[in-house]
């Protein structure tokens, strides 16, 4: 229960006006604390004490129900922090042994650091009571958090009779900061997350909820007078071994497996050329996905799926490439032999660039009603460059350029963008893109399965590639948002012409212009309410193609409330008018070539975290939905249950299932079931063993389909992985994976791929 009086509230409000001007002095102490979670060394008695007592979420700056303090100092090489987190009921502390970055639902303490004090990016370091780490980079420009970023730092935790203690050492080498002489200013926020019936975000600062920029509000810290960046050279040799067995089971006779064994040595080099500039080099890297991607269902979807980047070389300072639009999506580069990258940030100037080749060429062909992927067995060259200038926390301007080319294919992109915050309530974003694309005959051959164009099954992707009279394309994006404590209003306009391409990014739709406007209202609860936060959201949008023909018009609205047991209830509806598939696929026009359908569907989302290590969620969706394959309206039902639970501190089970059914005139069109189960035993902070099983089962009523199609498709993928991580770059992986499928030509699920793999890498820090 919160202790709240009118005197305390008045004091907190008065502090808001001065919190941003207070400067925290971080003392220099030459001694290095031993990171053991005990806090029994005398050095902590001389550290700066910081009180963490303000609940900034979900409440509006109320007094914390628990006491927390941080002890902080630096020694020129590292930042040392000790957290003392008191708890009157230590048995309620939520803490589990998990892999790095997987502890968000646990008790946490941590720190956010804007090391350049530009209000543009913040490093985030969080630790649970057992010392398990989670880190990320928060990007103010995109409002995204890159949780795939990993720094090398130290932490230890210890649960006690009155709460828990955590000691942290963050080497300054993992931060970008000014190497100027004298005292340096950064910005920091010290945090504790307390998950009980509610999940409280407790901070050392006041948070103005009418200001959408949280990094801008972090208080300044001064110190680090003797801090100097050194060469920061990291050399990471690696060896990947894989034995892959494959076979083609698409035929009457099933052959034996063909076995291929590869031994792939690799090398990664990271070098801080100057205190503000980092150079990365990778040679023959192992770019395989160590952990299987989460299953996604695409049974009634005409656009390509998005998968996030997980590979270390591309993740290093990846936020430097960010703009309002996704123009640099590095998973397009599948298997490079080499990669070179340089990044720099100093005095508001940020630069990033990389060059990498690829053993293949994978290109997304976008349209306005769907997209396709062309994969060519030819090497490609890929490059991306980005420059941004930040004039304080109000104005940013940037330029992005990308290049992809292979044989006679090329795609060039140049873009300029800006973000302007004239007041703390208003945000304006603008971006313009110019592209030039040249396809070659290999693209048409791939889409037509090497058939002559006269007999090819022409679709939108083939037409987009053939239209070489329009090699140069342009795109525009503009948005405005006005944000207050209790409400926000926004609008945006996006226009991509038919020839615009961003092949190194993820742009799956072109030849459209879309206008969106919307409104959100927020309520803040208090200790006297059963709920703690609620909001109502609604927007309206309309989309036309380049010729002014209507593609879609939609209105959607939803209401969300958060309450006890960390529960969320959210429900809403969507009303959409949209075009169906083209009657004549050899023509791109919409009017007279498509039907307009009206979709109405309702949905509900429920979740709760009733106790430590338990998460339950449920998504329900029903209503009219376009049957894309048959160009008609059907009745769709979706059920998505989710359950995560821990058996003790070491064993975790994660279960996901998606059930989707589409009916037409009372008859089943298809029924799809996608199951994703993962079982992890975490031996300690450094090692775990994980079993992942992904099963897809689709049944179709062939009588309800216009074209010939299999009545069933089943796919089963499994992976068993053992991992040992001394740090994010010194790792050992050993595992096995396989996959197989079943269609109408197969009597059961038949394996077509088996892989035994191992990877070892060791980071030498100099």
Automatic annotation (TrEMBL):
CDD domains: CBM9_like_2. The keyword Signal applies. Keywords: Signal. It comes from the Bacteria. Pfam families: DUF5916 (PF19313). Residues 1-19 form the signal peptide. This is DUF5916 domain-containing protein. Residues 257-334 form the DUF5916 domain. It comes from Pseudoalteromonas luteoviolacea.
């Amino acid at each position: 229960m919160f202790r709240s009086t009118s005197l305390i509230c008045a004091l907190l409000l008065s502090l808001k006006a001065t919190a941003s001007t207070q400067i925290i002095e971080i003392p220099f102490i030459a001694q290095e604390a031993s990171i053991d979670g005990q806090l029994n060394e005398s050095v902590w008695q001389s550290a700066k004490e910081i009180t963490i007592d303000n609940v900034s979420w979900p409440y509006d700056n109320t007094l914390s129900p628990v006491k927390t303090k941080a002890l902080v100092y630096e020694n020129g090489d590292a930042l040392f922090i000790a957290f003392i987190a008191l708890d009157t009921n230590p048995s309620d502390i939520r803490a589990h042994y998990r892999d790095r970055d997987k502890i968000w639902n646990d008790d946490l303490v941590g720190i956010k650091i804007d090391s350049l004090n530009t209000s543009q990016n913040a490093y985030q370091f969080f630790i649970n009571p057992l010392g398990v780490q989670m880190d990320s980079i928060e990007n103010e420009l995109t409002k995204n958090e890159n949780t795939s970023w990993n720094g090398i730092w130290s932490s230890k935790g210890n649960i006690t009779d009155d709460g828990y203690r955590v000691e942290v050492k963050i080497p300054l080498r993992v931060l970008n900061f000014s190497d100027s002489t004298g005292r340096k200013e950064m910005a920091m926020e010290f945090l504790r997350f307390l998950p009980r019936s509610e999940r409280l975000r407790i901070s050392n600062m006041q948070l103005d909820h009418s200001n959408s920029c949280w990094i801008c509000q972090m208080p300044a810290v001064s110190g680090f007078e003797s801090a100097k960046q050194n060469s920061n050279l990291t050399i990471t040799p690696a060896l990947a071994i894989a034995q892959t067995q494959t076979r083609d089971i698409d035929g009457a006779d099933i052959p034996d497996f063909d076995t291929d064994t590869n031994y792939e040595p690799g090398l990664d080099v990271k070098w801080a050329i100057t205190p503000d500039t980092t150079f990365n080099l990778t040679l023959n890297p192992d770019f395989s996905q160590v952990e299987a991607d989460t299953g996604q269902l695409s049974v009634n979807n005409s656009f390509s799926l998005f998968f996030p980047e997980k590979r270390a070389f591309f993740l290093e300072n990846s936020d430097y490439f960010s703009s309002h639009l996704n123009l640099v999506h590095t998973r397009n580069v599948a298997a490079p032999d080499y990669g070179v990258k340089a990044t720099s940030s100093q005095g508001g100037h940020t630069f990033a660039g990389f060059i990498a080749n690829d053993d293949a060429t994978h290109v997304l062909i976008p349209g306005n009603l769907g997209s396709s992927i062309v994969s060519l067995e030819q090497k490609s060259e890929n490059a991306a460059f980005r420059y941004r200038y930040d004039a304080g926390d109000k104005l940013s301007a940037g330029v992005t350029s990308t290049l992809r080319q292979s044989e006679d294919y090329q795609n060039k992109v140049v873009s300029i963008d800006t973000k302007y915050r004239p007041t703390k309530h208003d945000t304006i974003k603008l971006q313009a893109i110019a592209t030039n694309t040249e396809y070659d005959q290999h693209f048409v051959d791939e889409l037509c399965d090497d058939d002559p164009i006269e007999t090819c099954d022409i679709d939108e992707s083939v037409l987009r590639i053939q239209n070489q009279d329009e090699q140069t394309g342009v795109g525009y994006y503009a948005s405005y948002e006005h944000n207050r404590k209790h409400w926000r209003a926004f609008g945006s306009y996006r226009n991509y012409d038919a020839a615009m391409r961003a092949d190194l990014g993820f742009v799956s739709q072109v030849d459209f212009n879309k206008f969106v406007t919307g409104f959100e209202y927020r309520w803040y609860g208090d200790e006297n309410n059963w709920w703690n936060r609620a909001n109502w959201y609604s927007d309206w949008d309309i989309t036309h193609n380049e010729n002014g023909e209507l593609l879609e018009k939609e209105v959607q609205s939803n209401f969300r409330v958060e309450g006890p047991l960390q529960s969320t209830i959210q429900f809403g509806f969507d009303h959409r008018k949209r075009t169906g598939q083209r009657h004549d696929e050899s023509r791109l026009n919409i009017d007279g070539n498509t039907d307009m359908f009206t979709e109405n569907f309702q949905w509900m989302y429920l979740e709760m975290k009733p106790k430590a290590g338990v998460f339950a969620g449920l998504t329900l969706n029903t209503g009219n939905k376009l049957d894309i394959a048959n160009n008609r309206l059907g009745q769709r039902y979706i059920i998505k249950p989710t359950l995560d639970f821990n058996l003790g501190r070491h064993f975790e089970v994660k279960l996901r299932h998606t059930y989707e059914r589409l009916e037409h005139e009372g008859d089943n069109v298809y029924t799809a079931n996608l199951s994703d189960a993962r079982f992890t035993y975490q031996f300690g902070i450094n090692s775990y063993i994980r079993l992942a099983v992904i099963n897809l089962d689709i049944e179709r009523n062939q009588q309800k389909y216009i074209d010939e199609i299999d009545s069933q498709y089943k796919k089963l993928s499994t992976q068993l992985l053992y991992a040992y991580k001394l740090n994010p770059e010194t790792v050992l992986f050993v595992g096995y994976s396989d996959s197989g499928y079943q269609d109408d030509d197969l009597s059961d699920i038949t394996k077509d791929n088996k892989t035994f793999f191992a990877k070892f890498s060791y980071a030498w820090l100099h």
